[in-house]
Amino acid sequence: MSKTFVYMDYNATTPLRSEVKDRMVEALDVYANASSMHESGRRARAEIEEARASVARLIGAKDGSGLFFTSGGSESNNTVFMTMYQLGRKNPARRKIITTAIEHPCVMNAAAYLAEEGFPVVYLPVDSYGRVDMDTLEKELSPDTLLVSVMAANNEIGTIEDIKTITRMAKKVKAFMHSDATQAVGKIPLSVEDLGLDYLTLSCHKIYGPKGIGALYVRPGSPIQPLIRGGHQENGVRAGTYNNLGIIGFGKAAELALADLPDFGKKLTSLRSRLKEGLMAKIPHVRVNGHPEAVLPNTLNLSFPGAEGEAILLSLDLEGIQVSTGSACASGSLEPSHVLLATGLGPELAHGSIRFSLGRNSTEADVDYVIEKMPPIIQRLRRMSTVNPLLGQE
Ligand SMILES: Cc1ncc(COP(=O)(O)O)c(C=O)c1O
Fold first, then answer.
1. Pocket residues for ligand 1 (CB within 6 Å)?
2. Which fold has domain 6-14+261-384?
3. Closest CA to 370 of 302, 285, 293
């Protein structure tokens, strides 16, 4: 009998959709340099512009004019922060950066670089659900604020931030507003026009497209500086020969993600509830991390006090269940998740947390398999644990 595999790590990355794969196989023949003026070059360029328009539609942009292709979310976020670095160096009177304590490491580390360079950087605290503390934001916003950067949805706990209100507040002091929407795009409806953002980051491999391709939306008129200098591609914002294959795949993935959005939300909300309720009915003392309502439909983060996260992950892996402790980017580090710590969880609970992230291929059978396999694992790990805070309670 073949081994059962249940993939529940869609926030780390998603499999390529078959329609995207088919489109990319065709695109393998689109070899011309899209900057070339001959017919093949012009044809490649037309396909790239079609993809750009499709990605623009997914994020509710008026057209593709503000959309720049990059290698992914990390590059898009760094491009925004390094633009702020250039602006702040020229005008020290406006160089305060406000971000949050729960951003992805590519924002955290870009902000830390600016702090090292002498920029004032504020990491906004969040409440126990992971929502930004608006009072602190209000207090911190001042005429010297250059950028406010708040993620649209958190990769570890799925909490959705109130970006529209935060943008409105940032605009009162004429700060630029950026949102890392890498985890939100394709999972919840979202529009740069409605939100009023200056910058939005997205990444293709989170929406069932290829890896190594992403985009940065820049509101026409908002400043942007290249991170990679070279040729004139992307209006000089991002040099390098066009990644025809990745961009065309991105366009297809974006088109499908937009069409599927309503069904995705309905299906994933139901699967997530089934998983949450099933596990909580069978395992005592489970804590749900993240907001009860403002949460991505596919993300469920649970703490299992008395059981260690990595041990749970490895035991589930032996059963063919693939999940994550915190984020995939933080795995390999023994530090507890900075996101969970920011929500007020102690290090023991933060260490005992598992992120289930479901996706469009997830099924009720997958969920039921996890509900069957997980309780004995937690029971065994809790029994073995010398630091089990529940000893004597069960
Ligand atoms: C919230 C968030 N931002 C940024 C990234 C980085 O995106 P990429 O892998 O495309 O560089 C990720 C990927 O895990 C993410 O979850």
1. 72-74, 104, 106, 151, 155, 180, 182-183, 203, 205, 214, 329
2. Aspartate Aminotransferase, domain 1 (3.90.1150)
3. 302
